[in-house]
Amino acid sequence: MGLLDLFRRSPPIDDTAALADFIDRNAAFLVQKGMYEYSRARAGHYAKVMMTEPAFLTAIDHSRWQAFPLGLAMVGEAVEKVLHPEIAADRRAGIEALAEVVLSVFDRYEPPASLGKEAWLVARRDLAQRLELIGLHPPKLVKDMPMPFAESYFNMMPIDEKLRKPDFPAITNYLRVTLINIHDELTKRADVPVLARALLAGRAPSQQ
Lower Cβ count inside 10 Å, N or C end of the chain? Predict the structure, then answer.
């Protein structure tokens, strides 16, 4: 990266390919950053040693893949909130189109070895169901979107359960703040009318 790259704005998000890349990157960031930072905080002075131990690396690899569909669901809902003004006239079609994009991100990855094919297929079905639920209520405040996922995410932490019980509020706040930042980034970068049209292109109006 050159010096001038530091001052360049991130490219606009105005098509489904760019949107898929945004969802992929930020869903992974959301779940992985929290896991690594929490593990470091819990390990304290032993963090550097722990981060190189094969047992920990195996555990966190399992955890991050297990949590990735949760990240996709949360980021997907935040995306829908940004697009809502442009898709509200046929929200069902908009959510269905967005779900296709989110699931296409999931499908970029082969079943992780630590989970296996059957568990990965179950995770995909669960993700599809979570995306359908977005349309059952008006768009939430972004800070409230992680609430249905926070406990599951917390339970996936690669840290002994006895050591993580007092920390659930901190993890919940991490998810809230990070998802708000992701939403804000998309708000700044998305050409919402163009992106919504691209998302809905080729889709028949849904039956309300």
Answer: N
